[in-house]
């Protein structure tokens, strides 16, 4: 289809005319707004304006034409120039991409469902570990094991979040959760992830960190991913029983982490693999740089990661002070979840915080318990069979004068899920597995508003 600057159709082909259930000659001379309607015209006007300014434009749109109902088209607007080089109109080309878009929707639904199913078992695991932490143990092995489980739960949770953002990851656009992080925390996480690979090959690893505390502004999980990937690469590319060292030094407002091995060295003709390409992107997002070079010994490879130091370690102490779990007055709390392990473990950890907690294992029981128990807070799973969390929320909100804060605790974490929870009457939307301290802060906020 071609249009002049005023939006009058000057030419159409048979396919385009068929979308409007017309013949081509019936459309020539008509204003485009007559064909698509004023609402659609307002929405596409910015694209038309860019084309009339001389810019080629592409965008995707779900159309609802008389002869083409509910199909996704890719629109390509191309400026038309007159003999003097001035834009006299534009050409619109529509390409049916409905099959591709439909596949994208199915993929997104699959990823969302997979993330939901993976989050469910993580929730009771996190709750159980939090209970162990509240109980305390003098056994250093128990404390170490608890710390490992907590960190690996955090890793798994982040990986699940990545599944929901997989298209952005594929484009190399990571979402970083930057905070003030002691370097040793990221290094310890990396060692936990990579040590099985090193041990399996019988490699010897030495680690030397600065005597003073080094703090960087970073995403701890992503930074650990950088170091663990480099350690695994070193282990993979040298014979068994090799030697690997990780050394960190402070140099001119930056920390340099060097990972050195005594393998066969770099192949200058080799292309960087996916892992190393990913590492370079993560380091760049942290305002750092990475380089590979031959070590002074002349044998093996040295990978150097340079990261800027945080502006002040004092801010870390302030952040940690703010992160201390608030003193929350005891509240009456209802927990509803058809996953009994998740419900029972959450009941136990909230009871350790001093709350009076009752449990329901289905939505119908939750509705009855709200009326009988009169909780101040109801923490509801969304995906309960029969009467789901949305139904419970709507039932509670339909009762005049009911003063109960509703918290959705669910494996469904996309923006559409949050919006749907708000529409059903929830005050908070939290995704599994939730950190119990975070949940307790929500309860503290409810108590302050009481």
Give me some keywords for this one:
17 strands, alpha/beta, 3 domains, 5-stranded antiparallel sheet, 450 residues, Beta-Lactamase, Rossmann fold, Heat Shock Protein 90
Write the layout of secondary structure elements.
Elements: E1 2-4, E2 9-11, H1 14-19, H2 24-27, H3 32-36, H4 38-52, E3 57-65, E4 68-81, E5 87-96, H5 98-135, H6 140-164, H7 166-170, E6 179-182, H8 183-200, E7 204-208, E8 215-218, H9 220-236, E9 243-251, E10 254-261, H10 274-285, E11 289-293, E12 301-308, H11 314-323, E13 332-336, H12 340-352, E14 356-360, H13 363-373, E15 377-380, H14 389-397, E16 405-410, H15 415-424, E17 428-431, H16 436-448
Parallel strand pairs: 7-9, 13-14, 13-15, 15-16, 16-17
Antiparallel strand pairs: 1-2, 1-5, 3-4, 4-5, 6-8, 9-10, 10-12, 11-12
Helix pairs in contact: 5-6, 5-12, 8-9, 9-10, 13-14
Structure commentary:
The chain has 450 residues and is an alpha/beta fold. It has three domains: 2-96, PAS domain (Beta-Lactamase); 108-308, Histidine kinase-like ATPase, C-terminal domain (Heat Shock Protein 90, 2-Layer Sandwich); 326-448, Response regulator (Rossmann fold). Helices cover 47% and strands 24% of the residues. The chain is built from 16 helices and 17 strands. The chain has helices spanning 14-19, 24-27, 32-36, 38-52, 98-135, 140-164, 166-170, 183-200, 220-236, 274-285, 314-323, 340-352, 363-373, 389-397, 415-424, 436-448; strands spanning 2-4, 9-11, 57-65, 68-81, 87-96, 179-182, 204-208, 215-218, 243-251, 254-261, 289-293, 301-308, 332-336, 356-360, 377-380, 405-410, 428-431. The strands form four sheets. A five-stranded antiparallel beta sheet has the order 2-1-5-4-3, sandwiched between helices. The protein has a five-stranded mixed beta sheet with strand order 7-9-10-12-11, with helices on one face. A hairpin with a 2-residue loop joins strand 9 (243-251) and strand 10. It is flat and about 85 Å long. The termini are far apart. The relative contact order is 0.08. Mean pLDDT is 84; it is low at 313-325.
